[in-house]
Structures are given as C-alpha cells and as structure tokens.
Design goal:
Chain A: Keywords: Cell membrane, Membrane, Transmembrane, Transmembrane helix, Transport. The complex is a heterodimer. Chain A contains 15 helices and no strands. The longest helix of chain A is centred in the C-terminal third of the chain and has 37 residues. By secondary structure, chain B is mainly α. Chain B contains 17 helices and two strands. Chain B has a two-stranded antiparallel sheet. In chain B, helix 6 packs across helix 11 and helix 16 packs antiparallel against helix 17. Chain B starts with a helix and ends in a 5-residue tail after the last helix. Chains A and B meet through helix 1, helix 4, helix 5, helix 6 and helix 8 of A and helix 1, helix 2, helix 3, helix 7 and helix 8 of B.
Chain lengths: 291, 322
C-alpha cells in the first residue's frame, strides 16, 4: 500500500479547498438574492444585505407569488413545458427508432437530412417569417412546435437503442411481433433511463426559454414566466409593475420585489431538482460510458 | 449548448454496418414499411420547421418587403452582402463576437476538466455528491434568472461586489453599463452557469478508464498526483480534444441568448455580437433582408467550421461526430 506522504496531504487539502470554493461561488449569488427577498426592506434599500438576511419578512414573497400576472405566467410555462415535453419526447423517441436500423434502404439519406439541420439553419429572421406565415405569432404553439425534435437528443436515444441486445428484437420477431409492437412493448420500456434524461432536457428547455417567447409572443396574456421575469429584471426601476406595487405596499421596495420574483421563479426548479438530479447523472453516465 | 457536447460524445461510438445487396432491398422496404411510417411525423417536422426556413434565406438576395412576399420582392443579388462588408457596425460586431468567443474558450474550457479531475480524487462520497449537486444547479437556471442574480450582485448601489470594492476604498463600478467590463461579465457569468455542468462529460470519460491501470501504477509506487497526470489526464485526452474541436465549430456563437438578457444600448460597442445584431436589425429595425444576409454569413462560417472540425478530429483522434 502506498503511504500518505506530506505531498499527498497537501494535494488532498488543495483539492477539497478548490472544490469547496467552487461550491461557495455557485451558492453566493443565490444566497445574496434570497437574503434580499426576505430581509427588512429598509436594509435592502440601504444596501446592507449581504449573504445573510437582515431582519426577516415574507411580505414581499407573499406579494409576488399572489400577483395575478405571476401566477398566470407560471401557468403558461407549466402548460408549455408539460405539453411540449410530452410531444417532443414521443416524436424524438419514435423517429430515433427507424434511424437506428442502418441497414434499411434510404435510412442513411434520411439520417443526413436530420444531421444537416444541426450544422446549418435558416436563422432568426426566416424562422420569424415562417411563424408569421403560419399565423403562429401570439400563439403558444409557436413555442412548442419548432422545438419538438432536437437532433442531438434524438441521436442520444438512437445510440441507446443501438446498444440494446439485438437478440431481444429477433426473438420477438420469431414470435411474430411487428416493428410497432417491438418498439412500444420492448424497446421503449427498456429505454426509460435515457428517455427520462432526455425528457428532463426538453422540460428544462421549454421552462427556461425566453428567446422564442420574446420573438413570437407580445400578447401580455400569453407571456410565459421567463418573459414576465425579464420585464421585471431588465426594466430596472422604470418598470411600471414594480413601481406600482411599491406604492401599494409600505414595506416593499422595487429591489425587494425583483429579488423575490427571481427567488419565486427558481423555487419550482429547486423543488424538482434533487429528484431529477439522480436521474440525469445516471442517464448521462449510462449514455456516455458505454461507447 | 453544453448538453449537446455530452450527447455528441456518444455519436463517436461507431457501429458496424451490415451490408445489404440490391435484390433484398425491396423485400426489406416492404417488410419494414411500418418503420418508414414511424419516420413520417419526424420528416414533416424537418421539412416544415427546419428546411422551410432555409428556403426563407432567399430574402438575403432580395430587397424583401413583407407585403410583396418571397415571390414579389425585388431581387438585388449580392447587394446585401456588399452592404455587410462595408458596414463599420458589422465589423465591430464581428470583432466582439470573436473576442467574447475566444475569451470563453481560452478562459472557460479548462475549468470543467480541472473540476472533473479534482472530483475524481475525492474519496468522501457525501462531499463529492454535495459539490456535484451544487455546481450542476446553475445549468438548470434560465439566462433571465442568471442575469437577475448578477445584476443584483454587481449593482453599483448595494451590490455585494461593489460593497466590497468600496470597503477596500475603491469607487463603485457599473459593470453592466461599462464597455470596459461588459465582456468580462459575459464571460464570467457563462462560466458560472456552465462550468460545473460541462464537467459531466469528463467525469463520464474518467469513469471509463480501466481500474487496472491505477492498480499497476500504484504498485510501481506512483502517488496520486502522478496517477492524475499520467493516467487520468491522458485517459480523457481524446474526449478533451473532441470537445475542444466541437467547441471551435461554434466560434461565431458567442452567447446570443445570454447577451440579449444582459446588454443595453450603452454597451453595444463591446457586447453586440452577430446573433444580437441580427435580432436588433431584423426585428427591431425590420431590416429583414440585411439581417438575413448577416445570419446567412454566420450560418455558412459555422457550417464550414463544423465540417473542418469533424475532419480534423477524424485525422487527430480517429473519432468523428458523424
């Protein structure tokens, strides 16, 4: 056995310190904004809030999460995320299956058609004009339909299918099963880890997307959460929403409202994150190691 | 696009391809007609949402007018591209794009590798898991939220960083309104968001290294530092090269969606990149044809870079993306 030398000890301590600092650097901005969201407003305004809260109040948080526009935007985001993810994962998982059968005539050409779109695209303006032509401006479908297949995600699922033992399919075929049955009864149930991981990636995409809503949605009643958040974060003190609410409540400042809105928007992600984390780590590792 | 790197890695796994002779082709197609049916929705998706916008690129060669449409607008040949070449604004935007992108590669690319190497040396499972959970988290937050966080922490009035600067006797800096600092903010926040998550591909690559190598080295008396430099690092070198080459393919993508949440007219000079420029000119000024030309230039250069990167990777490490 190799004995721990002084060098090893310094090495160990150095590593732990660096990683600890990475962790702290990640948490610092989050701790700071959380503190601002729940500190006394006078402390927030005078810039006294650091990593820890100064005083304690939940009025700002309560005000933010009970705001109609906030709840409405959360609802829109949930709708897009659930419907978008379900459709995307179904379409992606189905398309990946024939593409994993490389010996089929024509499949390689279709494969090239998919891959080409990863390397070349029309760009912002032609996409915008297309949405306009399809009458999807100010329509929530404009946020879902163009994102239903990410070719990258599809390739991951495809290579997972390819890693499954061929004997499974062959024996099913002997029993007279058709390709549809094999896909839905055998392949998909076996692919749950990778499907779950990819579903998570789609869900995160739909939940976090602000760029396409910014392009395609200007009806206030259809604004997803990120777009609502952008109005509050970017418009600084000029935001009418922030100013009005500041007048309404004695104990609420514009800065406090901004902080509380950011925190309230992170909460849904934080609630599901620990549960999802064990899946994606496993899923990503399964995917990458096997090659 | 960090996720994509992980996924691309998988594509490098080559699979043997069974050879089919001509006579069996029709039989294969007929017996597997249902497999082809499965492709119909995907192909419709491709045609409508991927290839139709490519057709829309023709307006880069027109003086496009929304009322006259694709067919009715006047053709102007390469006029838009001539305008692009002679535009001083575009020149600035191009330089900004390259600068931000190169800074991101040079400064941020090594960090995930170091994180992965270090995490690999941690024996305390709880510590390892906790750190992983924390550093993966920002990847799942949107750019809007991250802008919100850093506007807050970098604020000249009561932001943590400026409080510290003042405490040391400095004058507060408006990071988001200062051309001298804006690029640094862009690069730093990108690092904050993705460094931890980008380590995942290297963590996976390390997990693939054979344990016998470590045992052999240990018997030969190599300490952990030497093992890290002589086994782990070389073991993941092909992955490092592959990811770096892939990253080069996105050289002109300096973070459009990120910068759109962070910048304002004061810092256009240092922060306007091709993507944001296309957005502003196209949808802000309604200059559809010109900004499509800029977008086409961007796509073409990107396309060439990706193809070149793939060839390079084939030559260097015998692995390719497709």
């Amino acid at each position: 056995m190799h004995k721990k030398t002084l060098g090893d000890w310094t090495f160990d301590i150095g590593i732990y310190l660096v990683l600890l600092l990475c962790g702290l650097a990640t948490l610092l901005p989050l701790a700071n904004i959380l503190s601002k969201a729940i500190s006394e407003e006078s402390a927030v305004i005078s810039g006294k809030v650091g990593i820890f809260p100064v005083g304690f109040q939940l009025d700002t948080m309560k005000y933010v999460v009970s705001s109609n526009q906030f709840l409405h935007s959360i609802g829109i985001s949930l709708l897009i995320t659930v419907v978008g993810t379900l459709l995307a994962i179904l379409l992606t998982a189905i398309s990946a299956y024939p593409l994993s059968k490389r010996h089929l005539p024509g499949i390689s050409i279709i494969m090239v058609m998919f891959i080409f779109t990863m390397m070349f695209n029309g760009g912002i303006i032609p996409n915008y004009l297309l949405m306009k032509k399809l009458h999807l401006i100010n329509n929530l479908w404009s946020l879902m339909l163009p994102a239903l297949i990410s070719v990258f995600n599809m390739l991951v699922i495809k290579s997972y299918y390819e890693s499954l033992p061929e004997a499974l399919e062959e024996s099913a075929k002997m029993d007279g099963a058709r390709n549809f049955t094999i896909l839905f009864r055998i392949i998909l149930p076996l692919s749950v880890p990778v499907i779950a991981t990819i579903a998570l990636f789609y869900a995160v995409y739909f939940w976090n997307d602000y760029f396409h809503p910014m392009l395609y949605i200007n009806d206030a009643g259809l604004k997803p959460l990120q777009l609502y958040l952008r109005d509050i974060v970017m418009d600084a003190d000029s935001s009418s929403a922030v100013n009005k609410s500041a007048d309404d409540l004695m104990n609420v400042s514009a800065e406090g409202i901004r902080a509380a809105t950011v925190i309230a928007s992170i909460i849904p992600m934080l609630l599901v994150y620990p549960y999802l984390q064990k899946h994606f780590v496993k899923g990503v590792l399964i995917g990458s190691v096997k090659g | 696009m960090s996720v994509t790197l992980t996924e691309l890695e998988q594509q490098t796994a080559a699979h043997a391809q069974p050879i089919t002779k001509g006579s069996g082709r029709w039989k294969l197609i007929v017996t597997n007609y249902d497999l082809y049916l499965l492709l119909v929705p995907g192909l419709l998706f491709l045609l409508l949402f991927k290839y139709a916008p490519m057709y829309g690129i023709i307006i880069a060669f027109q003086d496009f007018n929304i009322f006259d449409g694709f067919m009715g607008s006047k053709w102007v040949g390469l006029d838009q591209f001539e305008k692009l070449i002679h535009s001083e604004e575009f020149y600035q935007v191009f330089i900004n794009t390259l600068l931000i992108s190169v800074y991101k590669i040079v400064l941020l690319f090594p960090i995930p590798i170091v994180i992965a190497l270090f995490l690999n040396e941690v024996r305390k499972a709880l510590f390892k898991k906790t750190i992983q959970t924390i550093i993966f988290l920002p990847h799942f937050l949107s750019w809007v939220i991250i802008s919100g966080l850093f506007i807050n922490i970098l604020s000249p009035s009561g932001g943590l960083v400026n409080n510290a600067i003042q405490w040391f006797g400095g004058t507060p800096i408006s990071f988001f309104l200062d051309n001298q600092f804006f690029r640094s903010v862009v690069v730093f926040t990108a690092g904050w968001k993705e460094s931890g998550w980008n380590a995942i591909i290297f963590i996976a690559a390390i997990a693939g290294i054979e344990q016998e190598q470590y045992e052999a080295a240990s018997i030969d008396g190599a300490g952990r530092i030497r093992q890290m430099f002589h086994i782990t690092l070389p073991g993941i070198m092909p992955t490092i090269i592959l990811i770096l080459i892939l990253r080069m393919g996105y050289l002109l993508e300096a973070g459009t969606e990120q910068i759109l949440t962070m910048y304002n007219s004061v810092v256009y000079q240092s922060g306007d990149v091709i993507g944001t420029f296309v957005y502003r000119q196209g949808l802000g000024q309604q200059d559809y044809s010109f900004s499509t030309a800029v977008g086409l230039f961007n796509s073409l250069v990107g396309f060439i870079l990706i193809i070149a990167g793939n060839e390079l990777s084939k030559k260097l490490i015998k692995r390719s993306i497709w």
